[in-house]
Amino acid sequence: MKIAHHSGVSIALLDEERLTDVEAALDIIGAASCRNAFAIVADKSLVADEFFDLKTRLAGEMLQKFSTYRCRLVIFGDFSACASKALHDFMRECNRGNLIGFAPDEPAAVRQAVVKSAPGNSAPSSLRR
Q1: Which domains does the chain have, with CATH numbers?
Q2: Nearest partner of 38 among 88, 110, 106, judged by Cα
Q3: Using CA atoms, how far apart are residues 77 and 44, in angstroms rounded to an integer?
Q4: From CA 101, how far away is CA 59, in angstroms rounded?
Q5: E-assigned strand segments in 1-129
Q6: How far, in Å, CA of 76 to CA of 27, rounded?
Q7: Within the chain, which residues score under 70 in pLDDT?
Q8: How far apart are CA 125 and CA 91, in angstroms?
Q9: What 3-state DSSP class applies to 84?
Q10: CB-based burial of residue 109 (10 Å sphere; 0-12 exposed, 13-18 middle, 19+ buried)?
Q11: Which pLDDT score is estimated for 7?
Q12: What is the pLDDT of residue 45?
């Protein structure tokens, strides 16, 4: 995990850590919190394929942890191959909120994480220092 600073916001960029299950999500949230990161940005390739199959409920279980601990997550990558209308609807709804987001590439994901963490978007209280 690398920590980057953009516009006064600390963001954890996953490089080797994988979001494979709920326990991995909790470990990543904890590591980001310890490093004062207000958001986590992850390449789609670091997220378990099951996450993108909404029938497995893995996305809901993992994102519930991010929501519970008020930790922002933005996943980036090419989602055009995801044929599920339900997944695209889910991603669109997530992007409307402040905690979870999806972006086409890393620069867009970082921008989205910074905007979601900006003053007025209520920085996660568990991550305020």
Answers
A1: 2-123 (3.30.750)
A2: 110
A3: 5
A4: 12
A5: 2-6, 9-13, 39-43, 72-76, 100-103
A6: 20
A7: 116-129
A8: 24
A9: coil
A10: buried
A11: 82
A12: 95
**CA pair distance 100, 123, nearest whole angstrom:** 13
pTM over 0.90: no
Q: How far apart are CA 1 and CA 110, in angstroms?
A: 14
φ, ψ dihedrals at 39, nearest 5° = -155, 160
Q: Name the token pair of 59.
A: 């996305």
The candidate with the shortest Cα–Cα distance to 51, out of 61, 41, 66, 65, is 61
Amino acid at 19: L
Compute the distance between CA of residue 109 and CA of residue 74 in angstroms, rounded to an integer.
6
Centre a 10 Å sphere on the Cβ of residue 63 and count the other Cβ atoms it contains.
Answer: 17
Residue 9: which residues within 8 A CB-CB, separation 6 or more? 38, 39, 113, 114, 117, 118
